[in-house]
Amino acid sequence: MTKRFDVLVIGAGPGGYIASIRAAQLGFSVGCVEKWKTPRGEPALGGTCLNVGCIPSKALLESSENYERVVRKLGEHGIVAQQVTVDVAKMLARKDRIVAKMTGGIATLFKKNKIEWLQGHGRFVSGGDVIKIEVTGDAGAQTVEAKHVIIATGSKARRLAGIEVDNVVIADNEGALSFDSVPKRLGVIGAGVIGLELGSVWRRLGAQVTLLEALPDFLPAADHAVSKEAWKLFTREQGLDIRLGVRILGAKRSGKGVTVDYEDDQGRQSLECDRLIVSVGRVPNTDGLGLEAVGLSVDARGFIEVDEHCRTKVPNVYAIGDVVRGPMLAHKAEDEGVMVAERIAGQAGHVNYDAIPWVIYTAPEIAWVGKTEQQLKSEGVEYRSGRFPFSINGRALGQGEVAGFVKILADARTDRVLGVHIVGTHASELIAEATMAMEFSASSEDIARICHPHPSLSEAVREAALAVDRRALNM
């Protein structure tokens, strides 16, 4: 007998599993198709984010930051440690335990919410009032039916022509999370979010890291003040060698590791490294979905076209997360998953795309939400700016993490917050207050009038809000 669901979700990454849970909460019968397997061949939920992305990378970032604190930072606290070593195998094992706990937790949530996990690859067979999906797994193929389908298949690492990734010596983000030792010389192609995070992990553990970036500017999507501060911190203080405006010609393995050939404004150059990470962005994972069977296609960049509520042009077929327009962020996918489930239920789910925070989990962290100063200038919007440094924040001083600042941009006429930009310790946590403020259309005065705990890093947000009106109290 053919299985039939009210809602079938293809993909169990953050967008897919959240969409499944919310749909089940709303009373729908839900099936979720997921083919992911661990290196040991075990089926797993969570997609790229939980298995080889957000979660494992943050585990390694924390481990490497702790090592750097012991080796380089605890001395000023009067704590002296000698003969400190790194056990990479133990570090990786801890990372794997965290991943297993998180992915196992999703399986528990599926059972709790009576969501059926269909293990295998999903492909459209036909559309209409009842949509048919073929699921092919280890046990063979089966066809299931659904009234509504949500495509949440995520993204995969972009490849560079002529560079073969083996995830041992030449790695993408997945292989870079599993190096069995600290390379003496590490090359990274791409100085974006993933390149900076992974390069930071291995630099702290002792690698000499060189990043090759095609763009002429560093972190151009960030506010210029933030990218300028980050450049100073990463290059001058931390020793990352970041080379901008390069054109990669090729990379090949040699007896000594990897040789990367590239061109810059000085001409043809070569970089010798022991291991290489290729981190040049991600592309939608839409291969093999059989979209044509229901009248769907992808655009020139591989994205599925949707409206503001993630509806495709085919009735009852939706797409969310990395396969559609907008930033490739797990939390954006989650919010879209909730919105679509609620829309199917006849509710008014929505996503405010102007209030989605961005975070780069380096040390210090970088986070922002809303417009940058350069965007406001290009749009002709009159604004006021307030800024407060962590160097005179009591909690930051106590922690010994004084780099960076908080910057708030507000409309010159209405005082409504248009953007908040942070570079500093725990920026990923602090940006949540700014996101909430923007979601509720707060003014900088609203933030400035809220009592913040003292001493706390959050006081820097309040002081930046006060600085918009030129009345910061501690500067």
Automatic annotation (TrEMBL):
GO MF, any single term: flavin adenine dinucleotide binding
Positions bound to NAD(+): 190-197, 213, 281
Keywords from the UniProt entry: Cytoplasm, Disulfide bond, FAD, Flavoprotein, NAD, Nucleotide-binding, Oxidoreductase, Redox-active center
Keyword Disulfide bond on entry: yes
Localization: Cytoplasm
Superkingdom: Bacteria
EC top class, as a word: oxidoreductase
Cofactor note: Binds 1 FAD per subunit.
Cofactors, names only: FAD
Gene Ontology biological-process entries: 2-oxoglutarate metabolic process
EC number: 1.8.1.4
PROSITE patterns: PYRIDINE_REDOX_1
Disulphide bridges, residue numbers: 49-54
Domain FAD/NAD(P)-binding: 5-337
Catalytic activity: N(6)-[(R)-dihydrolipoyl]-L-lysyl-[protein] + NAD(+) = N(6)-[(R)-lipoyl]-L-lysyl-[protein] + NADH + H(+)
Active site: 454 (proton acceptor)
NCBIfam families assigned: lipoamide_DH
Other comments on record: The active site is a redox-active disulfide bond.
Name of the protein described by the UniProt record: Dihydrolipoyl dehydrogenase
Organism per entry: Pelomicrobium methylotrophicum
Upper lineage: Bacteria, Pseudomonadati, Pseudomonadota, Hydrogenophilia, Hydrogenophilia incertae sedis
